Amino acid sequence: MRTIAVTGGSGKLGRYVIEELRRQGYQVVSLDHRLAEGLPCRQIRVDMSDLGQVAGGLKGADAVIHLAAIPAPVGYPHHTIFANNVLGSFNVLEAADLLGIRRIVMGSSTSCYGFAWASKPFAPAYLPVDEAHPQLPQEGYGLSKTVSELSAAMFARRSGLEIANLRFSLIAAPEEYERMAADARHPERFVNILWSYIDIRDAATACAAALTAPLEGGSISLNITGDDVLSEGDTAVLIAEHYPEVTDIRANLRGTAPLFANALAKETLNWRPFYKWR
C-alpha cells in the first residue's frame, strides 16, 4: 500500500492527515472541491456528489481516507448537510468498489449518538458511551454520519470492503487549547458532547493506523476520543451534577476518565491518544 487518497484534504483534519501520511512514507493525493495553497501533495479538484469525478480522482489509489463533509449542522439547511454528506460517502464507497480499492477509512462522528446537537437534550443510556450505544440523532449532520455508517456496512456485506468508521469527538488543534482551557472552567459549555475531544494530531495518527489495522473484510465503528474530559472537574462530579439520572455506570470512571469509551479503537488500531488539553 503506497498511494493514499484523502478526500477533504484541504480541510482542518485533512491537512494533518496528509502530513502524517507523508511522514510515514506514503504517497498522497488530495481530493477536494477546492485547491489549498501549500498542501504538500498532488491535488485534484473533485465534486464529491459526482460519482464519475470521485472515481476518476481515486484511480491509482491503494486506499482511501474519506474526510470530505460539511463538518457540523451549522451554516446550511439540514437537508443540504444530509444530502452532501451521505451522497459523498456513498460515492466514495461505490467508486472504491468499482476500482478494486479494498480499504476505506471513513470520517464519522460521536454526533451520531445524538447528544451533541439535540434540540431536545437527553441523557446517555449508560456511561461510558461505547460503540454499541443507540444512535439517536435529531438533526441532519448526526443522521448523515449514521446513514454513512450503514452504507459502509452494506458495502462490506456486498463486496467485502474493509471499512473503519472513525467516530471523532470535538477535534482540537494546538492553537485552540488556550480558549478551550478557559471554557473548561465552565462545565456546562461541553455538557452536550460529554466533555469529549480528540487532539487533531491523535486524530491523524488514528486515520493512518486504520489503513493497516486487521479488519477482515468488514465494517467497524470506533470512538476516536481522548483519555480525559474537557473539564477542570473530575468525571464523577460531572456525572452527578449534569447526568444524575444515569445510573448504569459500566466502568471505573476515576479522576478525569473520558465518557466516550475508546478501548475498542485502542485495541483494533493499536493506537493511543497522546496529547491532552492540559
UniProtKB/TrEMBL annotation:
UniProt protein name: NAD(P)-dependent oxidoreductase
Xref: SUPFAM superfamilies: NAD(P)-binding Rossmann-fold domains
Residue ranges of coiled coil: none
GO-annotated molecular function: oxidoreductase activity
Source organism, top-level taxon: Bacteria
All copies of domain NAD-dependent epimerase/dehydratase, residue ranges: 4-218
One Pfam family matching this protein: Epimerase
Keywords: NAD, Oxidoreductase
